[in-house]
Write a structure and sequence with these properties.
20% strand; 9-stranded antiparallel sheet; 38% helix; alpha+beta; single chain
């Protein structure tokens, strides 16, 4: 590997580290100096490098993540006040949050909540991969990936499978991050396995996990982050584009599926349909897919997968 590629990988790792830090500290004040320190760059160079690699300035990225997180909370936590959500997402007061929200989404927080309630209760509902209704209203309508997200409620195909609430264990992961269309994540898995295999981290017992960091009903598909991951034991020293993360233990709705690549949409629709009638709502932990096999080695090319959605009572 030449020095140019090594440099690119190191820069990617530092930017990913900043994104992870922002997600973990969304309720705190995060300025350019803090982000630059996390990335081990000077503020001047960090701003230029982040903007070039991510396609938006660091401050714009933080603002967008805060607002998109707030939109999720407005939908998922109907009992929380706007002020509570504003502080949870790092805004200094409710009025500044409300102005920023209206500017970004083209709707007030009240209008947004009313819209989400209406979408959930009428025909023609559309679901995202996190079982959220896909919004086409507002100043920033999102183009979602039809493979997973576009389905009319009255046309949903429900698979016959067992879905149950489970206490899932903590997952210690190493990952290669993919940003963009869901069906391109295979490239990230290829990079991950090329790095992990020579280090003895890939065995016949190795399990892969795709972790979803953004909700495609809110975040534009080209900015949706997905982590191609494998479960590891202990503290693995990572480098380059390979990072490490932890999925906390907690209660999840878990659906077990044995499906072909073209059937993921039906599997997710099944989970979403079940969730809307379950008495649960999505919780704050990431949603993930836990794969039990290597589909390329399956005679029928099936994915044996658990779809895991963090939940809490309504």
């Amino acid at each position: 590997m030449d020095s140019k590629e090594l440099s690119k990988q190191e820069y990617t790792a530092r930017i990913n580290r900043v994104m992870d830090y922002i997600g973990q500290n969304i309720d705190q004040q995060i300025d350019l100096a803090v982000m630059a320190q996390v990335a081990s760059f000077s503020p001047y160079h960090f701003h230029r490098i982040f903007t070039a690699m991510v396609g938006e300035t660091p401050n714009n990225f933080v603002s967008r993540i805060r607002l998109e997180k707030a939109a999720q909370l407005l939908t998922d936590n109907l009992k929380s006040t706007v002020s509570d959500i504003a502080f949870q997402c790092g805004f200094i007061n409710a009025s500044s949050f409300s102005r920023a929200f209206k500017t970004y989404f083209g709707l007030t927080t009240k209008e947004f909540r009313e819209q989400e309630k209406a979408i959930y209760t009428k025909n023609g509902v559309r679901y995202s991969k996190n079982c959220k209704a896909v919004s086409k209203i507002g100043k920033h309508p999102q183009q979602v990936n039809d493979q997973f997200c576009s389905v009319e409620f009255n046309q949903i195909i429900i698979m016959n499978t067992k879905i149950e609430i489970k206490q899932m264990p903590e997952l210690n992961l190493i990952y290669c991050r993919h940003m963009g269309a869901f069906n391109m994540i295979g490239q990230a898995y290829e990079k991950l396995f090329r790095w992990a295999a020579p280090r003895g981290l890939v065995t016949p017992e190795t399990k892969t996990v795709t972790v979803y960091r953004d909700d495609p009903s809110i975040t534009a598909i080209e900015k949706v982050r997905q982590d191609a991951s494998i479960i590891v034991k202990g503290d693995v020293k990572v480098e380059g584009e390979i990072g490490k993360s932890t999925i906390p233990s907690g209660k999840y709705a878990v659906g077990h599926f044995e499906i072909k690549e073209t059937e993921f949409e039906e599997a997710w629709n099944t989970m979403c349909s079940w969730l809307t009638e379950s008495g649960y709502q999505p919780a704050d932990n990431p949603t993930y897919e836990y794969y039990h096999n290597n589909y390329s080695e399956d005679i029928e090319h099936r994915f044996i997968v658990d779809i895991c959605i963090p939940v809490k009572p309504l």
